[in-house]
Design goal:
- There is one protein chain.
- About 45% of the residues lie in helices and about 15% in strands.
- By secondary structure, the protein is an alpha/beta fold.
- The longest helix is centred in the middle third of the chain and has 21 residues.
- The N terminus is likely disordered.
- Bound molecules: magnesium ion.
- Magnesium ion binds next to loops.
């Protein structure tokens, strides 16, 4: 089938790009990531009781850096590489011990969205790519996603905004219309990312964040969880045909 440039643009312009955060949005990994990080710090640097830091909403790259700083380990390319490799070695064991759960409504929503020819699903997460894959594969969710922007790109999560815009454009072959892009996440930084990208956001309260604090950041929508599939599809103007 031949499409003229105009009709191709019209066709692709009708698509939605949905960016999903992972931890606290798609899955609750029951602390597997934290346990793997603490084991990695002990194994690599010989720390007996390493201190941890708040992990929510951060990139792994920033977390590695701050964990070294707070535990008085000198930060270098080598220390980062060692910590990252050991973290990825420990994570499968911790996920096998307890991988947690898929959060309410997520599986049905992803199934519905991937059934729709209008939706392209991406990951916009602070996890480094192998950790994202391990956490989602533990719940058979990895294959729902077509592309991603990950936490290896910068210590600062907000630096992911321009990368996500570039990735969406390169994946679709044109710049998606801003009103057809949504970031879905559980932290203030997910909402801020959407604001920096100039797109809409859905905040969910499944990651332990307080609804009032999330609401104060001004997301376009805020839900207790993602279980109201019909309402979310209505937001996207996708027909929910009950298939
Ligand atoms: Mg999160």
């Amino acid at each position: 089938m031949h499409l003229s440039t105009d009709s191709l643009d019209t066709f692709l312009g009708s698509q939605w790009v949905l960016w999903f955060d992972i931890d606290g949005t798609l899955v609750d990994s029951a602390g597997a990531g934290r346990r793997a990080l603490m084991s990695a710090l002990k194994n690599v640097f010989g720390l007996t009781s390493p201190q941890c830091i708040p992990l929510h909403g951060r990139t792994d790259c920033g977390i590695f850096q701050d964990l070294c700083r707070i535990n008085q380990v000198s930060w270098s390319t080598e220390s980062r590489a060692l910590l990252e490799a050991e973290y990825l070695r420990c994570l499968p064991r911790e996920l096998a011990y307890d991988s947690g759960r898929i959060l309410p409504g997520v599986l049905e929503l992803l199934q519905k969205l991937t059934d729709s020819p209008h939706c392209r699903l991406g990951l916009l997460t602070g996890n480094i790519p192998p950790a994202a894959k391990l956490k989602l594969q533990a719940h058979v969710l990895w294959d729902f996603f077509e592309f991603g922007v990950f936490g290896d790109a910068s210590p600062d999560r907000l630096d992911l905004a321009p990368l996500a815009l570039e990735k969406a454009s390169s994946t679709l072959g044109l710049k998606p219309s801003a009103d057809r892009v949504i970031v879905i996440g559980d932290t203030i930084d997910d909402i801020r990312l959407a604001q920096m990208m100039g797109v809409r956001s859905i905040a969910v309260c499944t990651g332990g964040g307080h609804r009032r604090e999330l609401a104060a950041q001004g997301p376009h929508f805020i839900f207790d969880d993602l279980s109201d599939t019909e309402l979310i599809l209505k937001i996207l103007n996708c027909p929910d045909d009950g298939a």
